[in-house]
Amino acid sequence: MSRVEIAVNTDLFGEGGSLEQIRQLLEQVAEAGFTHIHWCHEWSGEYLYSTHEMLQIRDWMEEFGLKAKGLHATKGSDRDVSVRSGHCRRDYTSDWERNRKAGVELIQNRVELAVCLGTSEVVLHLYVPHVSFQQDPGEKDRFYACVRRSLDELMPYCLKKGVRICLENLFDFPGKYMLEAWDILFSEYPAEFLGLCYDSGHANMIWGELATDVVKAYGNRLYAVHLHDNDGKNDSHLIPGEGNIQWAAVADLLAGSAYRGPLVLELTCHGSREESLRRAYQAGCGLKRMYRGKV
Questions:
Q1: Which pTM was predicted?
Q2: Cβ(37)–Cβ(9) under 8 Å?
Q3: Which tens digit of pLDDT belongs to each residue from 112-161?
Q4: For an engineered disulfide with 166, which of 87, 112, 146, 197 has Cβ 3.0 to 4.6 Å away?
């Protein structure tokens, strides 16, 4: 009997400090029933993967019978995302041209990783410096000019590689700025290159019960998901069913969208790995049944 196709993020217990821990995590994920992973190690920061590291991850996946459903790219160094002040390394939104290009190079590295792991999407954060927009209306045009330059450089590269960038909805700024970003960028770039990643927990924090209704307008761009639960206040990354998200509405959203493929859980778990993975897989199977019943 074939397993239900469900994916889980690789950093659900943290990133681990050794290669042995990463390999063991992949083995445990497979033993729990998961068929796919969403590679989330080094999802933030400046780390560049070597080709040999990429091949090592692929070897482990093949050893345990796992496939990839997307991976999480990185925006570069951590920074205050609400203001545009100073310069942090490898920032694809930077107005320092060399630094911006370094940010593009970092995303290209994750595109190469996606190709190696056999997946066609990378999830990316676009932080909108809304406080700077409020302080200086001209900052919006300058910011998006930098974003466009980076996307213009990434698009032919991604289309050649067959990898789509999916912008994730975030909770670090008011929702209207996220919708504005989607409206601006989705009108200028094709769906083959640019889509969205629906993060259920972030959406619950920003829009609450209205989340799925808000995102439905962008359903034709919805190609990636991060599914997890919370109480609407904290980004807890709980197993679905442990918070207050209305999962029937989420299933309805996904069924009416462009989304295809296994559902992706993005969790933060504590305690027994075996028990956490068991409960996560069961929850994922429940969501899959709910989702398939609406397709």
A1: 0.96
A2: yes
A3: 999 999 999 999 999 999 999 999 989 999 999 999 999 999 999 999 99
A4: 197
